[in-house]
UniProtKB/TrEMBL annotation:
Protein name in UniProt: Zinc finger SWIM-type containing 9
One Pfam family hit: DUF5575
Residue ranges of the TM segments: none
Residue ranges of domain SWIM-type in the record: 477-509
Cited InterPro entries: DUF5575_C, DUF5575_N, Znf_SWIM, ZSWIM9, ZSWIM9_RNaseH-like
Keywords assigned: Metal-binding, Zinc, Zinc-finger
Record GO terms (molecular function): zinc ion binding
Keyword Nucleotide-binding among record annotations: no
UniProt entry tagged with the keyword Zinc-finger: yes
Amino acid sequence: MGDLGLGQEFHTWHQFSSFFDDWCEKHKVLFIIASLKPLISLRQNPLHYQPSLAATLRFRFVRLICKHSGTYVGQSTVQRNRLSEKIDCPASITLRLGLVVIEASLEHNHKLSEVEFAHYFKRHQLEASMGLPIRITNSVSKRFLAPDLIWNLEDYSKAKDKGMCELLSQLDGLFKSDPGAKVKLVFQEDVAVLNSIFLATSHMRGLVQRFPRCLYMDKAACVNSEFELYSVLCQDSNGRGRECAYCVARRGVPDLVIFIVASLVQSAPDIKLKVKCLTVGAGITDVDAVEEVLPCARVQICRLQVLEALYCKARELAVPKEDKVRNLLHNMANASSPRVYSQYLSDLEDLAPLPFLQYYLEHWHHNKGTWAECWAFERNRDCPFLEHMSFHQQKLRSALSPPLGLAACVRGLLELQALRVEMAALNEERVSELYRAVCPPDSAALIAEELGLAKHANYHVKEVPEGFLLDGGICSFLVSRDLATCSCSIYVSSRRPCRHLFATRLWTGQPLYDPGLLHSPSGSEGQDT
């Protein structure tokens, strides 16, 4: 049969899997895994050099056998070379440590039908999670996981797929600390290869439920050579972009945007009719079906990113009179009416060379309603998309250092969902200025001091029936549900906003500046002082 023989060596499991898929397609043969042994047992502590080696090679022994090994005639459609009741095809391939082929019996005692090969063959099966049966991965895909299902998946994965086991361990820890979290694991159908992870904690779901009007989505980071991170943000009452969903997806997965949006709506159903605008990055193009999931929403593409993409294309094509072309593009993007847009388009058609004009018409003109000013969701208003995404990516860089495994990526994303991370970026001086404008100097100084202390807060915030419990390890404080009072001695004695009120308001997205916080039971803040 050729192309695969004794002594042949492969340097990574991915290399062997890709080669083997091509080889099977070429020769129309079906193999299954008879047995395998992982390079590192999860029950033993690996040596310092082994984890990276295990990620590359994965197994120290693999035996592949023909699908018809031990198969009876009635179980599959084959034509045998010799008559017997049992097929017992002897074809097999064995690899040992270093992924070296030590056995290659490639002669089959039957011919495989084209129909059967087309029905059963699936690429990437060898790269699949060896511990998760296909019937399990098919059933869990595209629906939210239950905590007990995570435990079952862990049992299947143990000692077979270290990477999947570590990922499931992270998700198990998430559900133990946050039973209301929503997680999806999506596998390729009939192949236990993980395609994407959707993740929204209870806190993230709460934010999008409170602030659903405008959402922002873009590819936020590259996780590794195979996976990318997409983030969905909302804007809270303080004008800050807040994470409300993550999706770690394999490159090239189709219909990803609609999957993310649909999963977000499923995790927070109340937002379905409340989302009025979804702004996406210029690199996200498959947005046509979004309005079916968000029927009251307009989809728009970040205008500045569209212009940057057009400017880059003009440079790439060495467009003559590039400055004039850039000015026309800028004027089209910021046109005050469809008529003005059409006038500038006519000028572009006269000025731009045909290759650039074709690019523009094919990629951007047909969806001009999603990015040109005259069709904007809110005209004559700056879109905060770039500001929110830039701040979000800055936070990601502090927690994620690609390339990462999926478990490490999920762990880093969850670590970002902490009060200390949000407080670190607080501009307390801007809030203090607002209070100085309405407070006596002494009161304003005390409020500024509390804001400064809030920035260094390191509390765990938990929503309870009475309000929000801030646990600092040594002592805890209860902030009322309306975010107006606190059990701490500073608030009780002065009736002024304390660090705990500010921390909880920032965490939940409520305004840091609220004149209502200045009133005391006996009258105004001025009377109190």
